[in-house]
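Risk register update: the risk that structure generation would not scale has been downgraded. Supporting records follow, first protein first.
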Amino acid sequence: MSKVAAGGVYVSLAMAERFAQSLNEPIEALPHQRLSDREFEVLRRICAGETVTEIGEALCVSSKTISTYKARILEKMQMPHEAALVRYAVRRTPYAVRRTPQIIRR
């Protein structure tokens, strides 16, 4: 009681136990953290405005392969279309749309 009267905070034993248990619960990954390194590179290039063909040429794979990566990225990140991917990346970091810097993986 004296702690609360002095401006402190009271935490019941039950609340303290729930808080301690919550520290052990897994933290859900952000959508872009679910991507493989290659998928992440494709996402970065899409956000930089490169076409499927340009990305394929830069990564030495076919444009069909890049289209497959793009479909997987949309599925893993649960985004309905490419514009949603770009919007997500722009909101995550101001560097997403530039060609040189990359989206920061946190």
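Supporting record for the second protein:
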Amino acid sequence: MMSTVAVLDAVKEFLEEKVANTIKLQKANDNNVYSYELVNPAVHLGWVPPKGFLPQGMESGIPCLIVGIDDASKDIEKRDFNIRISAATFSPGLHKQDRYTPDFHGYQDLLNLIDRTLECLEKYALIGQRVSIKEDSIRWGMYEDQPYPYWYGWITFTVSRPVLPPVEIVQKYL
């Protein structure tokens, strides 16, 4: 039986494999907005780790996808988990050669990351071989307040997993 943490881990691994390694976004650098480096987004569980607690080799926790759970429910045959993926990007403006022009188009990077994630969620009905994405449960949006130059959005969807092994569920109805 998969625990709640195992479900979240399965979603995290799915995002690392199917989404994060397919897109590069600007690495956050609060000390120097002129600095421009593209990196694959990190995938975190729960929240963005604060500085000093980032995994070894990671200089910035953003851009990223953050896997969390809103709530869950259970019936006799399955458990449903309402998953929330928060997306965070950094984009203070346009970088061209040695010039930097501040702008408020960073939301486009955020929406590209969200779209790439949605594409994968819609393409694959199964996560981690035991957790299925419920059809028509996917929703997404942007948070109302955007703390420029950071941009935040969210994706919610429901995943299900059987409580009992499938053979036991079928036998119960025979």
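The chain has one domain: 4-172. On this basis the risk owner (M.S.) recommends closing the item.
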